[in-house]
# Entry
Amino acid sequence: MRSFTCPSCGNLLFFENSTCVVCGTAVGYSRADRALLAVDGHHRCANAVLAGCNWVTDSPDTLCDCCALTRTRPADGDAPEAFVRAEAAKRRLLHQLDDLGLPVGDVAFDLLSSEAEHVITGHASGLITIDLAEGVDSHREAMREQMAEPYRTLLGHFRHEVGHWYWEVLVDRAGGHDRFREVFGDERADYQEALRKHYAGTPEPGWNATHVSTYATSHPWEDWAETFAHLLHIRDTVQTAAAYGVRVAGRDIPPHPLAPVDAEPREQDEEFDQLIDTWLPLSRAVNQLNRSMGKDDLYPFVLSPLVLAKLRLVDSLVVGARL
# Structure
């Protein structure tokens, strides 16, 4: 995430701020300017109250570009806090997709509450369904333990599910199947049967030598989506560190670790190497910081050589879509 400042006093602000906490200036995020602007001269999104949206529009009583991507939302009064959290995660997702130069025109979201109906988080050619229960900490933590996952976040769900859409865009439509299968395996394997076996069994020993998560072992499509989500995790966190001048000292730190990640994606292989050379010591440092506070690791994953090869392929396709 880039850093944001108040347009009036220069105070550092969070992406989600609607008011400067120092000078009181009302601010809103402009997608066109990719910055927080003073609301004067602009209009709040029509979802400013309902969804806690801090984006601005050019016309009154209209939805911002991000809120307009929500095709279906829960009824008024149904899971309001979870809906606000989901929309906040979606705004972060859209900001990053814009940063990466990925097309979002065909993406839409159904944000549904399992309090009112049976909801399965998933995807269907760009239509992404999110169970708003994932925005409730107690439910999400219970599911994380039930699924034996080391990590589970609402933003992670958005990044994973949209990753399926970008498989269609970057691999399927582009005819990149051979390259994909060489790294991830053959996606023509029966998907439903693969999921059935995954949920019925236990991961093979040593799975983390080839996959970033146990769910990634279930099918090449899920492996891609998990890897895509992790690439977005890594790029966003490294960009945030660069934006705030965070440097990590260590034996394996490169001479200029922050130079390439503060900007938009550029050259492919060389930049990916620099990205990972920055990420590895940074992830170790933030894990140590979390442990110092009595918390679990922020990034509890191992990036084996085979996982890095998968990340490299996804990154090359993402960057290639921009160039």
The radius of gyration is 20 Å. Residues 67-164 form one domain. The CA atoms of residues 198 and 308 lie 23 Å apart.
